[in-house]
Amino acid sequence: MKLNIPEHIENIVPYPPGKPLEELEREYGITDSIKLASNENPWGPSPEAVAAIQDSLQGLHRYPDGSSFYLTEALARWLGAGMDEVVLGNGSNEVIEFLVKAFVNTGDEVITSHPSFLMYQKFVQVRGGKNTVLPLKDMEHDLEGILEVVSEKTKLIFLDNPNNPCGTFFSGEKFISFLNRLPETVILVLDEAYVDFVEPEKRIDVLSYIRHSEGVPAVVALRTFSKAFGLAGLRVGFGLMHRKIAGLLHRVRQPFNINLPAQAGALAALSDISHYNQNLRKTKAGRMWLSDQVEQLGCRPYPSSTNFFLIDVGGDATRLYDAMLHKGVIVRSMKAYGYPNFIRITVGTEAENARFIKALTDCRSELGYV
Ligand SMILES: *Cc1c(COP(=O)(O)O)cnc(C)c1O
């Protein structure tokens, strides 16, 4: 064969393939490992969602509803949005991809922060677009810096708010002043994958910005069922946006992008809001307990509005990650993200949190970090 490989495709660094937990356990000779590395929900989905998914399996010989009518309707009702302001994706990742497909051509620019969610840049590379990447400033999006680099070629700005991995959040006045100073031609995408964990009164009223876009840039908000709803494996996310933008995204999506069990499961999860609220409550309690314990160990926990937070462990994070892995506790080292002494930890169940604290204590003393 003779491949003519486009340079912008060849240059993409493939997503590092994680090993299945089972393989990792075999390799390290451990059992009962706990994974606090991917910001997943440790309590799992609503039992009603699981039952609805099971029921849906009888219908797998049929294509799903291409408009995801009932799920879109329920989401719109829950959020106070119009059905034509909601676009569903195979995870919110897919909505990111739709936005880039619809708006970014070769040579167009997209602004993102680092560290932040890596998928924004990936999709831009696929389209032959140009990534302009600004480092976080004091672990927050450098909004002033973004205003300096924005140009007429800038099509999209992606800001995860709260930010992953730092857990920091901006709201209110900061947001409004930023939005008002951006050129009207850009689309500001707020990735709100973790906004469920933020106190309601602190959240940005995205719907009002989506609807009142005269004289200011369009705002798109991304949300997901992967975190607070505990359905990461199902792959359902959505975007809230002006109906004009939604209409464009529907043009670039596949007709059946939300599969049948996913539509059924997400719909049932939405009708079990008490399970969702319980997850939020338990997450907050777990985060407070964990950061308190971490502090007592003499490590520095960073404040977070999410289900994860950073910890300054007082020594090389990757060595600590490795030591903890040998005890079956999987965390994320932030060394590759530019924070050599930091790990990121996701709130687990009470038992998992306790095991994490024990492993952190033992490993730090073994490595002489105390
Ligand atoms: C987890 C996460 C998402 C969710 O992606 P899905 O495709 O909906 O699972 C989106 N953005 C950020 C920043 C995340 O950390």
Search tags:
single chain; alpha/beta; Aspartate Aminotransferase, domain 1; Aspartate Aminotransferase, domain 2; 7-stranded mixed sheet; 4-stranded antiparallel sheet; 14 helices; 40% helix; globular; binds pyridoxal-5'-phosphate
Q: Spans with pLDDT under 50 lasting ≥5 residues?
A: none
- Gross CATH architecture of the largest domain: 3-Layer(aba) Sandwich
Number of strands: 13
Largest sheet: 7 strands, mixed
User: Helical content, roughly?
Assistant: 40-55%
The CATH topology annotation of the largest domain reads as Aspartate Aminotransferase, domain 2
Number of helix segments? 14
What do we call the CATH homologous superfamily of the largest domain? Answer: Type I PLP-dependent aspartate aminotransferase-like (Major domain)
What is the ordering of alpha helices and beta strands?
HHEHHEHEHEHEHEHEEHHHEEHEEEH
Shape: globular
- The number of domains: 2
Tell me the β content. 15-25%
Q: What is the arithmetic mean of pLDDT?
A: 96
Any idea of the CATH class of the largest domain?
Alpha Beta
Radius of gyration from the alpha-carbon trace, in angstroms: 21 Å
Overview of this structure, please?
The chain has 370 residues and is of the alpha/beta class. The chain folds into two domains: 15-44 and 274-367, Aspartate Aminotransferase, domain 1 (Alpha-Beta Complex); 47-272, Type I PLP-dependent aspartate aminotransferase-like (Major domain) (Aspartate Aminotransferase, domain 2). The protein contains 14 helices and 13 strands. α9 links the parallel β6 and β7 (218-224). α3 (47-56) packs antiparallel against α11 (260-271), α5 packs parallel to α6 and α5 packs across α10. It is globular. The structure holds pyridoxal-5'-phosphate.
